[in-house]
Automatic annotation (TrEMBL):
Domain of life: Eukaryota
InterPro entries: Leu-rich_rpt (IPR001611), Leu-rich_rpt_typical-subtyp (IPR003591), LRR_dom_sf (IPR032675)
PROSITE patterns attached to this UniProt entry: LRR
Protein name: Uncharacterized protein
Transmembrane segments: 555-575
Cellular component aspect of the GO annotation: plasma membrane
Compartment(s) where it occurs, according to its Swiss-Prot or TrEMBL record: Cell membrane
UniProt KW keywords: Cell membrane, Glycoprotein, Leucine-rich repeat, Membrane, Receptor, Repeat, Signal, Transmembrane, Transmembrane helix
Family to which the UniProt record says this protein belongs: Belongs to the RLP family.
Amino acid sequence: MANTRWLPLQDRDAHDQRRRFGRVAKDSRLAGAAPSALLSGLPPPPPPHLLFFLLLLSARSQGSQFLVCNSRDNDTLNASSNPPETRVVALQLGKLGLEGAVGWKALLGLDELKVLNLSQNSLGGGVSPELFRLRQLEVLDLSSNRLHGPIPDAFDGLRKLRWFSGRSNRFNGSLPASLSFCSMLTSLDLGKNFLTGRIGWLNFTTLPRLRTLRLDSNGFVGRIPRALSSRKELETLNLAKNQLRGRVPWSFKNLQALSSLSLASNTLSNVSQALKALSQCRNLTVLVLSANFFGETLSEDRIAGFKSLKALVIANCRLSGSVPSWVRRCAELRLLDLSSNRLGVAIPQWLGDLVHLFYVDLSNNSFVEVIPEALASLISLRSPNVSSTDNSAIEFPFHSRHDRSTEVQYMRFFLIPPTLDLSCNHMNGPILKGFGKLMGLTVLNLSNNNFSGSIPEELSGMLRLESLDLSHNNLSGKIPPSLDNLTFLSEFSVAYNHLEGLVPQSRQFLTFSCLSYEGNPGLYGGPLQSCPALWPGSTDAMEERFRITFMPLPYGLGVVIGFVPTVVCGSYCAYRRRRKKERRD
């Protein structure tokens, strides 16, 4: 590596390339990119395609002097000033919009290549076995392309491979069994492909250094292999969105380094055993078990672990029972999502004791009684700068719908919008005035319940609020003019209540559509002046229009983390709306 040089090929401007070409940096990798036409399968451009480019690099790796052609203006740049002992150790060709099939054979001369990055292009075709003759290769990134076909079972020659990603392609077939020979492997990511077969065909006992395994969004079947529990250094495991069945192995309790686990969207069973085993993983920070354990009960089994847990997501499971009491001992919990289950009785008061909790989604359940006062006392939501002190990364991206057309992905806790979502339950009583003290709350969704009384003026204290949904309740009185103080408010609905009086005449309340106010015959003014009749019984089309518009939760993470669908107020919400409409008619 002492004589490794840097060829500055990333800038596509010919003159800038010429200016930077002489700047060679010792002990650097070949960084940057081949020109956009360095791939076979494209129309012939002025410069050479990838085959010619790699042949030149091959000559360079053997100590020859050669010329590199610029892709923009066909200028020739003299590379002979670099010493003949220069060696190519890395090709960084990611994010260039490159298309076509790769000339894999041209790689054969790069005997000292350690890093090959072709990620985030539009490369097609299959992967040739010639690639696996690069015996020194340590990092191989083929992610986010259009590569297809089976992955060649030829990894037995890549004994130094430490990092391999083929994520987001169109690979099919089974896991290459020869990956078991890569004893130096620390990270394997083949998520978002069309791979099938059993995960257990890969011998994990020969991969002692494995820390990251992502096989999500494929078609793997069978059971979770017990051999995974022997990988003591495993930190991140994502097997979501497959067709795995059976139980979470009890031996998973031995994964003491495990920090992030997603098994969402499979057909796993026995939620009690899963939680008992995983609670003993003392470093577990993010746990996603959504869309499994269908029809089971979330029991009150005594669980003393989860000391490090920051995010717990068990959504879309149709679980019965209640919020388990062991959650109160998760002192580090920031995010709790138990949405789209059949959990009932009252929401426990002790949720207010979780001092770091800033995201609570209990929507689409069967909770009854009033809102516990403790939810208006969540310490982490009383500051305008909620969660800003937690800059830790999230291995599984959290997805949130910022509006009705855009979905946003979050990779750090402090970026997730602070949320309280109790929508689509059977709760009653008044809306707590204490919510006004939650200055850091971004999303408040209390829709589709039986809340009554007036809208508290104190809600104007939620200075960071961006989304407020109080629709489909039994609220009465006026819309408080003080809500004008919510200057960040971009989504608002009080539809289908018993409100009356003048719609606030200033700021953002004049920008909300008629759909935000429909179903309240006593309301007038503002945007309602130019709206057609929107009251219950007007037309079925109007009701359907509202249902389609408000079906997605505006910010709810729902069944989070990129591997599970975002929770929406689905058929149950639609049923509740229809039932209320019929009752009022």
